[in-house]
Specification:
There is one protein chain. The chain is α+β, with helices and mostly antiparallel strands. It has two domains: 144 residues, no CATH class; 125 residues, no CATH class. Helices cover 37% and strands 11% of the residues. The strands form three sheets. It has a four-stranded antiparallel β-sheet, sandwiched between helices. Helix 1 crosses helix 5. The protein starts with a helix and ends in an 11-residue tail after the last helix. The structure holds iron/sulfur cluster (SF4) (2 copies). The site of one iron/sulfur cluster (SF4) has 12 residues, from helix 7 and helix 11.
Length: 327
């Protein structure tokens, strides 16, 4: 049996901002029904992979044989450097905050492996590590393990820390001596994120319609951008942080990450709008080595940059209006 206090102590030493544990078991029927309804309404857009392996997503014991415990962990990726740089150059273009540093998949996976090793556990024999790449409902588990609640902007809010975090999980075949409690929702009557979303993608119940979400459209979507979304990009051509920026928990509690790999790369941060519009394939390869931005591919970035340019020119000519997209 593992000691929960020991897991949390090792996690904090490695740089995780929060850690919680829960017994590995099937998700409650209400959460399973929410998934089925969301998929039936087509809110997953082109993310067909979300329709596959649903039985594993709804029960981690089908993902890892003999699973007894889920450990949910969060890593802060916020950096005020990005805000300060862009505030001083308001006409420059921007990426979602997490995209200025090294790909979180690599960083968090390495941290999870260190955690397993420091607990004397062996990956494969005693469990597995996951970062956003397997059918595991990471937001449910973060809430179930007591890390925080799923806000109306769909992200997990850590009390007193905000939501600029990436999540990772260990699914272990050992039990723990103490398990956390489900963290109840504390959004209350607030709807700031819903009101800040420029495309109406947030449904108000902690889920979103990916077909309308600029983050999905600029990163995952292949082909042309829908005209309505394209005119709403503002200055951000990869991802979109507007709902998170509007959240009072982020405004009050976001603090700089202590994870060096998540600090913004200066060579990305210093690029002007003209630099971005003239981005060559060689620059793309050099700038985004080991970066999550590669997910959109060069073609995707070119498409997004063109849409941003057209949108901003239309605003300048008074042909369109856009909500502010600056923090
Ligand atoms: S990321 Fe942007 S488009 Fe997507 S829900 Fe949030 S504010 Fe709306
Ligand atoms: S902005 Fe308000 S409603 Fe939205 S996630 Fe934050 S606290 Fe919840």
């Amino acid at each position: 049996m593992l000691r929960t206090e020991e897991i949390k102590r090792c996690a904090a030493e490695i740089g995780f901002s929060a850690c919680g544990v829960a017994p590995a078991e099937a998700l409650p029927e209400a959460r399973a029904a929410e998934w089925r309804q969301w998929l039936a309404e087509g809110c997953q857009a082109g993310m067909d992979y979300l329709e596959r392996n649903m039985e594993k997503r709804l029960d981690p014991r089908l993902l890892v044989e003999g699973a007894k415990t889920v450990v949910s962990l969060a890593v802060n990726y916020y950096s005020g450097e990005v805000d300060r740089a862009l505030a001083s150059r308001p006409d420059d273009l921007r990426l979602a905050r997490y995209a200025y540093g090294t790909d979180y998949h690599d960083v968090v996976k390495a941290m999870l492996r260190r955690l397993m090793a420091s607990l004397g556990l062996e990956e494969g024999r005693d469990g597995r590590v996951f970062v956003d790449t397997a059918p595991i409902d990471e937001k449910y588990w973060a809430q179930r393990c007591g890390l925080g609640w799923r806000g109306r902007h769909t992200q997990i809010i850590l009390p007193g820390q905000g939501s600029f975090f990436v999540l990772g999980e260990l699914v272990l075949t050992e039990t723990c001596d103490e398990y956390g409690d489900f963290c109840e929702n504390r959004c209350g009557a607030c709807r700031k994120c819903v009101e800040a979303c420029p495309t109406g993608a947030l449904r108000g119940d902690g889920t979103l319609d990916a077909r309308r979400c600029l983050s999905y459209l600029t990163i995952e979507h292949r082909g042309e951008l829908p005209a309505e979304a394209s005119g709403r990009l503002g200055h951000c051509f990869y991802g979109c942080d507007r709902c998170a920026e509007a959240c009072p928990h982020n405004r009050s509690f976001s603090r700089d990450t202590l994870v060096e790999a998540f600090r913004p790369r200066p060579e990305i941060l210093r690029l002007s709008a003209e630099d971005w519009y003239g981005l060559t394939r060689e620059q793309y390869q050099a700038l985004f080595r080991k970066s999550a931005v590669k997910r959109a591919k060069m073609e995707g970035l070119e498409r997004n940059l063109q849409a941003v340019r057209q949108g901003l020119e239309a605003v300048k000519l008074g042909k369109a209006s856009q909500d502010s997209d600056r923090p």
